Design the sequence.
């Protein structure tokens, strides 16, 4: 199904496949007779029913293939293909088994033992659900593409016309009739024009900014897609005229079918984001570190569960304690839980989600969360021209009228870049006092025109040809002649009131349609004075050639001599070299054949109008009145955005389907190129680029680059080569032809207003305002988000280092376990979560868009930062273990009395050898108070198990307090808290309050205190907690100071060496 006509116009799969290229029947380069012979069909009679069935069996239906997506189970399994997730899964399974074993061994199962594995499983399930939901949206671009296909076609078969045949039933060789408004059902060769002109809107497929004229004349064999003027392509729309076509390709062999295949291929080669790669690398390193520490802990404690005696120099009489072995295995599991930042995935997702909200406020709608971070390291922006750098709204920018005599011209600059009639003015315009020549120009522009402009949702939309809509907007800016009365009609909006005024004065009675030979359009009008006139607009050279006279400023008409003709052509040349599309205006009052004509079919003059070959003679001996220059103007804010990109070290490459001269002029104007820059090596067509021997060398050039007349495969190749070269590529686009490159790029950016659904579904981000400057603002936001993410990732990792150090020291010193896994899980998930999320609200640096983009392989943590957090981690470990030891061994510390609860003091030696307690003589331990409760134990030795609950609470509280203070350290990587005080981020202060509040909640709510194995603390004990926790700020301030001094000395040394080299 959907094979398309392999033998009847098979297109090559790859441009480099020469043999395939030779076998292809190039219908665009053959005349109509050759096409009929090749497809064995007559244009008059079409295919026979028998031949249709035969071809359908061979070539299938005219449909796009449906690629099988991933199954739901493969998507679920894919979510666990992540190092951190696998470590978490392993830790959860082991924790669950140990909890089950302990329950079986003791005869009763405590639900609190299962809290830790169940919470970890819950995290993994939520992560998998979110991942599967995101992945399942990936194939929507292909489904949206199918909606572009035509559903029905008007076909000639068996010498009969079938008015509405399902488009899927078309086969190569079918004869199809197209008319205005039809969507083209397959790739077809135009064989006959029924109307004098045929225009198609194919910008979504080729990137051209205007509707394209089509003919039935063959073109060169090596023509690009834009140059195939005798071909119409599936999914494009007829905007003017009607014709007969011959189907050459169907299904996947059409141009839109190739795009479909390219999207599928691009979706298969999607890569992880830079952040995901770094987190995976971090996970792998973490796995090794956890493994080494677990082994080290076991080696340190092996003496407790495995002992032996030496007999004759050999170890014998081995004694193994399975219970103690299991205990130390639990410590190793606790180590794994401590080392893994379980809250990191949730905090990253939250931060990215907050980032998407910020970007949405700037008109950048993020479809895929990870793309927020990827934006921050964008090094190249490949931008489409039409609709992104420009407004995609044709606008008159220059009006040239005739002066007092034939040797002078008047030029007016016209402001405005949209279809808004009030959006801009005409400079030096004689408002309310238009002379006769300007009035004639306004009349022709208003009446010789089939377009309209309406307002919709604060946007101005053109109906009809964009150039004609721009002329109507010009008429509104010109205003009404002096002394004229306003329109008294409710049939039209006030948007085009001046055009309506002219239409009421001069009633159209006939239209001479535009055709490609005479390149003009004319209308015959009947004025209120019953005077017939012909108003003409068209290509300046053609209109000027058919003109014999010229109208001066005061309305008088004189002969158009050679000097006047030369002057007009000179003005035309100046405007054309500025990439303006020029239209000339002329009129004729002497219409001998139409003096009595009023639009009646039975009038003799009506027969003249039925034959387009008469139009040139009717449009002869014209009176030339002036010309205008139009273009799709650049957006006003784009120039500054390009400058911002240059300052931020981001290269801008423009890739467009439009013609080279127009694109170069726009690129010079917006600052991609300098006004006098040599463009020989900077501006190439897509075809020229593909013929280069060393494409990567071309792409490595500094500054901006331009690729014009680009096809979808050219865009894909450019993106692929840039990515191979290590660039992080953001690609913008709005059409079907852009979708494969959008899918392939690191960041695909689609247009929200003009973009097709295909482009939007293939993208990572959608611009709600179609504005290039929005991308630049989003890049700045992405950089800010990345910096903030780096801050909270470092914060969480440093906190986890502290937890690892705490457990390691506990095991190394041999003291009772100070922190249990469920407490560590609470700290990592709940207590650390709010401050880490709040760090995502850190204000951006002022110079964030003046720094070069970071490399995608830059490490999250460099050696100095690692050393800093190792120092901090060691302090966290010493503080949490130290406060545990202090409670057991000291009655007071730093003047803080700790004896008020009546607990029994022991020596450090006793604490370190608590396992030998049963062998001690005369050891007793007294019950002690904790809040309103009294802590008792079964025997003296149980003091080191049940009685350690207060010491554990102190360790947990110190850990929480240190991590709150450490979050203040994370406000800036190197800046002191004196230069960046805590209140620069009020959200962080709120988050710290929330975290402390949650900690108080589990301390002072009896049920929660029992679940977490802790008890309430007194005021003095809280003072001890703060005294032990606060130094973490002082230590990091000293380390930051050393870092700043080292950094400044390195910078000055580099500056001196640079000066010496110069």
Sequence:
């Amino acid at each position: 199904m959907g094979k398309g006509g392999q033998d009847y116009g098979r297109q090559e799969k790859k441009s480099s496949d020469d043999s395939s290229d030779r076998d292809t029947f190039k219908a665009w380069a053959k005349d109509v007779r050759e096409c009929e012979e090749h497809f064995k069909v007559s244009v008059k009679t079409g295919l026979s029913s028998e031949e249709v069935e035969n071809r359908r069996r061979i070539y299938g239906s005219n449909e796009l293939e449906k690629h099988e997506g991933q199954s739901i189970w493969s998507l679920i399994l894919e979510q666990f293909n992540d190092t951190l997730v696998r470590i978490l899964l392993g830790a959860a399974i082991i924790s669950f088994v140990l909890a089950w074993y302990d329950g079986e061994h003791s005869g009763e199962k405590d639900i609190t033992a299962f809290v830790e594995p169940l919470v970890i499983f819950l995290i993994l399930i939520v992560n998998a659900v979110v991942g599967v939901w995101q992945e399942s949206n990936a194939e929507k671009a292909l489904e949206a593409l199918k909606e572009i296909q035509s559903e029905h076609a008007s076909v000639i078969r068996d010498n009969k016309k079938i008015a509405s045949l399902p488009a899927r039933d078309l086969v190569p060789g079918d004869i199809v009739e197209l008319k205005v408004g039809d969507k083209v059902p397959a790739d077809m060769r135009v064989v006959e024009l029924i109307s004098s002109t045929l225009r198609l809107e194919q910008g979504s497929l080729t990137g051209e900014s205007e509707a394209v004229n089509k003919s039935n004349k063959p073109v060169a064999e090596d023509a690009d897609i834009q140059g195939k003027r005798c071909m119409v392509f599936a999914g494009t729309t007829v905007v003017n005229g009607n014709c007969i076509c011959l189907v050459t390709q169907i299904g996947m062999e059409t141009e839109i079918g190739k795009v479909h295949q390219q999207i599928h291929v691009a979706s298969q080669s999607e890569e992880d984001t830079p952040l995901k790669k770094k987190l995976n690398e971090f996970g792998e390193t973490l796995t090794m570190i956890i493994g080494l520490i677990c082994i080290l802990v076991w080696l340190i404690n092996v003496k407790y569960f495995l002992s032996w005696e030496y007999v004759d120099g050999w170890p014998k009489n081995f004694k193994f304690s399975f219970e103690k072995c299991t205990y130390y295995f639990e410590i190793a599991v606790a180590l794994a839980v401590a080392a893994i930042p379980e809250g990191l995935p949730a905090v990253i997702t939250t931060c990215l989600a907050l980032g998407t909200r910020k970007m949405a406020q700037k008109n950048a709608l993020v479809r895929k969360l990870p793309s927020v971070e990827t934006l921050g390291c964008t090094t190249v922006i490949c931008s489409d021209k039409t609709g992104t750098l420009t407004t995609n709204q044709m606008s008159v920018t220059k009006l040239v009228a005739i002066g007092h005599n034939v040797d002078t011209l008047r030029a007016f600059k016209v402001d405005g870049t949209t279809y808004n009639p009030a959006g801009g003015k005409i400079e030096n315009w004689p408002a309310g006092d238009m002379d006769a020549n300007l009035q004639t120009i306004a009349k022709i522009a208003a009446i010789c025109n089939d377009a309209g402009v309406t307002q919709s949702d604060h946007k101005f939309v053109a109906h009809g040809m964009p150039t004609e809509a721009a002329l109507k907007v010009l008429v509104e800016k010109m205003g009404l002649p002096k002394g004229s009365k306003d329109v008294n009609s409710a049939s039209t909006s006030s948007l085009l009131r001046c055009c309506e005024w002219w239409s009421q004065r001069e009633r159209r009675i006939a239209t001479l349609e535009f055709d490609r030979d005479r390149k003009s359009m004319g209308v015959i009008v009947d004025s209120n004075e019953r005077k017939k006139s012909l108003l003409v607009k068209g290509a300046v050279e053609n209109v000027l050639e058919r003109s014999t006279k010229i109208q001066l400023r005061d309305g008088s008409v004189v002969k158009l001599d050679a000097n006047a003709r030369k002057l007009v052509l000179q003005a035309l040349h100046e405007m054309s070299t500025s990439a303006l599309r020029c239209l000339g205006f002329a009129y004729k009052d002497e219409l001998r054949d139409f003096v009595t004509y009023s639009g009646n079919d039975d009038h003799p003059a009506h027969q003249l109008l039925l034959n387009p070959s008469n139009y040139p003679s009717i449009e002869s001996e014209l009176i030339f009145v002036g010309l205008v220059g139009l273009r799709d103007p650049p957006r006003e804010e784009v120039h500054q955005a390009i400058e911002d990109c240059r300052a931020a070290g981001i290269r801008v490459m423009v890739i467009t389907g439009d013609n080279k001269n127009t694109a170069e002029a726009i690129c010079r104007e917006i600052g991609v190129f300098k006004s006098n820059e040599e463009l020989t090596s900077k501006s190439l067509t897509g075809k020229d680029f593909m013929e280069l021997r060393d494409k990567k060398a071309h792409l490595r050039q500094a500054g901006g680059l331009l690729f014009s007349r680009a096809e979808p495969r050219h865009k894909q190749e450019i993106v692929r080569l840039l990515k191979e070269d290590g660039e992080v590529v953001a690609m913008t686009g709005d059409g079907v032809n852009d979708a494969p490159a959008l899918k392939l790029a690191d960041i695909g950016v689609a247009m929200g207003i003009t973009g097709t659904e295909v482009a939007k579904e293939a993208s990572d981000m959608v611009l709600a305002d179609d504005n290039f400057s929005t991308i630049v603002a989003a890049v700045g936001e992405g950089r800010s988000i990345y910096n903030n993410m780096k801050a909270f990732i470092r914060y969480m990792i440093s906190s986890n280092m502290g937890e690892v150090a705490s457990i390691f020291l506990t095991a190394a010193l041999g003291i009772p376990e100070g922190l249990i896994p469920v407490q560590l899980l609470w700290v990592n998930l709940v207590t650390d979560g709010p401050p880490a999320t709040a760090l995502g609200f850190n204000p951006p640096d002022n110079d964030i868009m003046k720094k070069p983009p970071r490399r995608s392989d830059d490490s999250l943590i460099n050696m100095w930062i690692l050393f800093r957090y190792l120092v901090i981690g060691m302090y966290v470990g010493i503080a949490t273990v130290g406060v545990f030891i202090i409670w057991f061994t000291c009655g007071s510390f730093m003047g803080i009395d700790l004896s008020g609860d009546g607990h029994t003091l022991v020596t450090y030696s006793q604490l370190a050898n608590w396992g030998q307690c049963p062998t001690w003589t005369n050891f007793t331990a007294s019950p002690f108070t904790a809040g309103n409760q009294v802590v008792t134990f079964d025997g003296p030795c149980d003091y080191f198990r049940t009685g350690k609950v207060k010491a554990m609470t102190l360790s947990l509280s110190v850990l929480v307090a240190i991590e709150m203070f450490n979050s203040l350290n994370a406000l800036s990587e190197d800046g002191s808290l004196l230069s960046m005080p805590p209140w620069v981020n009020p959200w962080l202060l709120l988050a710290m309050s929330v975290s402390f509040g949650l900690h108080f909640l589990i301390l002072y709510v009896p049920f929660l205190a029992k679940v977490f194995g802790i008890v309430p603390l007194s005021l003095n004990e809280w003072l001890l907690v703060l005294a032990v926790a606060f130094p973490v700020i002082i230590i990091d301030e000293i380390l930051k100071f050393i870092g700043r001094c080292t950094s400044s000395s390195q910078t000055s040394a580099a500056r001196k060496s640079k000066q010496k080299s110069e």
